[in-house]
Specification:
The protein has 501 residues and is an alpha/beta fold. Helix content is 32%, strand content 23%. Helix 4 (59-70) packs antiparallel against helix 17 (465-484), helix 5 (73-84) packs across helix 12 and helix 12 crosses helix 17 (465-484). Bound molecules: zinc ion. Zinc ion binds at residues 1, 4, 7, 309, 321-322, 355, 383. The site of zinc ion has 8 residues, from helix 12.
Length: 501
Amino acid sequence: MNAPFFHLLFVLLGACVPVGCAVASPRAVHRGDTSAARLSPSRATEPLASLKNTPAASHTVRELLASGLASRHASEIVQSLTDDVGPRLAGSPGDQAAVAWALARLRAEGLSNVHAEEVIVPHWERGVETGEIVSPTRQKLRLTAIGGSIGTLPAGVEADVIEVQTLEALDTLDAIAVAGKIVFYNTPTERTRDGSGYGRAVAVRALGAKRASAKGAVGVVIRSIGTDQERLPHTGAQRGFEKGETSIPAAALSMPDADLLHRTLAAKKAARLRMTLGCRHLPDAVSANVIGEVPGTTRAEELVVLGAHLDSWDLGTGALDDGAGVGIVIEAARLILATGPRPARTLRVVLFANEENGLAGAKQYAKAHAHELDRHVVALEADSGTDRVTSVTYGGAPSQHAEFVAMAANLSPLGIAADSAEADGGADLSPIRALGVPVVSLSQDSSGYFDIHHTANDTFDKIHPDNLAQAATAFAVAAHVVLTMNENFGRVPEEKRERRH
Ligand SMILES: [Zn+2]
């Protein structure tokens, strides 16, 4: 997610979480039946009715809207990536296959200058993982290693459990109460439309093991960072351990198992847990950012970037995270190629490596393209799943805000409103945003995203073709307007370049 950026930015930059932190003013919590909303087939085409009433829309924008909403190509792209490649954690054979897939796909879609740019990525592998409460009542637990965790000895780690709800609560405990124990962080994730509930909860996954280790704990389990009630744990990355810090095994429990452990501790005042994690770190591996372009005409040296990440966690097939984003940005490029005259500026699609557990691709892009970042007019990232774009936010020079408002008016036929919150851009854009490249965020409805995020349930059947088409169309229209306009968005002011939180 761009939210979904979730992901690991938090870990790498020490900044914030992907989705949540992007929005300065969290909107109303949505507790409705999100699956019903996702499955409503009529919603994606409704906005077309208002198209004729939008005087700002050029002929090409109208064409993009009509052809984009009618197309199901974005979901076909996700199907190909998830069925033909599958899971693609950085450094894995799937990651290599994804790079080859992306090169072939971008060429097949008619993009130019298609190539791979080498990125050195961490290589972490999951192994066997088991967990159980061994007393007072023996109970099997569904858990999964948090990305980057060390493994246990083959016999596992067994210890009494101490429960806390937050990192701050752990900080108040004496080390003697924590030493030798397994710390259980039981932090709920609030369901929100903008993903901010995830942003508020994810710190325990990112930092929980480090904080617990500092007090002498021998392991950590967390309530999965997610909004479902399935018996499927959510993985995700944690912040790496520094030299001199003791790394300890860390795992996420499914929600029903976290509830069981909580009830056991509440009723019996004690519980003993054993877990076995076979995960391990392997030597760094070679991966790549995959890039393709729609070359511009009169101002070809000026670039508009559409980004998504090619890697995924290993439990599912990375359909929502971030197959959907890959489908969105490739389909947006295809729509622009197929519609109207070739734009003045160049559109560049970047499929980043290693967003989930390292952000190495994003950092490498910023380094390799440092010489031309001043020619990056704007960058947009798709990493928030399959649902509709509902709002658009700006992250450029305040002096150019009127240009953004004019651009955003073209999105109103899609039911997308400009929001005054500062755009964060997303995890993969954070290194270039920090160097001044303006960002625009097309924010997707994240109400249902964290039911699936980073679980074995992240599979192609969760993709909603109509809603994904709306999102791809939004990216195409936004990119088209910037590719063809004379103005720009300036640079991100110095004081706003660091991620908040
Ligand atoms: Zn993602």
